[in-house]
Amino acid sequence: MKQKCDKCHRPATVHEVEIKKGQKIEKHLCDDHAAEEGIATKDAYHAPINELLTNFVKSHHEKAGPPQKCDSCQMTFAEFREHSLLGCPQCYTAMDSVLGTLLERAHEGGTHHVGKAPQHFEDGERRHEQLLRMRSRLEDAVSAEDYELAARLRDDILRFEGQDS
Asked: Under 8 Å CB-to-CB from 112, ≥6 apart: which residues?
């Protein structure tokens, strides 16, 4: 069954669904009433997709509040998005609220450096790396003729290797 415009009896060509405070609000409007509400214009159907997306992003960005701006170098978040480069180290602090989300997405949810191994790195590979570090420390202790430390490290390595069994 075709929907009719909520404000008149012409066929609805624009359908909008909004969720406000957990309530689903549906609007079914003809071209004229949609244009009145600023939802769509008659020319919107002929606009290039990149123009539609740009307008959508701009309208939602403006709703989010004032543009983020660095007090030190005056760079705005919009400029960062355009060039993908920050102007100065203070930009990280000034734009923290918006950059944090981008960094989390780019780094699989990580917000601070936790080492060279990525989060999805296998436990077995981590254990192997740890064992190599322990053996290197043992070699250093032997080279330095610190036999007491070397004995402790040797025992630690044996216990560590025994955990694999």
From this structure: none
List the one residue out of 32, 28, 22, 38 whose CA is nearest residue 6. Answer: 28
| CA 32 – CA 42 distance, rounded (Å) | 8
Separation of alpha carbons 91 and 18, rounded Å: 34
**Integer Cα distance of 103 and 24 in angstroms:** 32
Q: What is the largest CA-CA distance in the chain?
A: 94
- For the whole prediction, is pTM greater than 0.85? no
- Residue 32 sits at the vertex; the CA angle it makes with 22 and 3, to the nearest 5 degrees, is 55
Q: In this predicted model, what pLDDT tens digit does every residue of 137-164 receive, in sequence order? A: 999 999 999 999 999 999 999 988 887 5
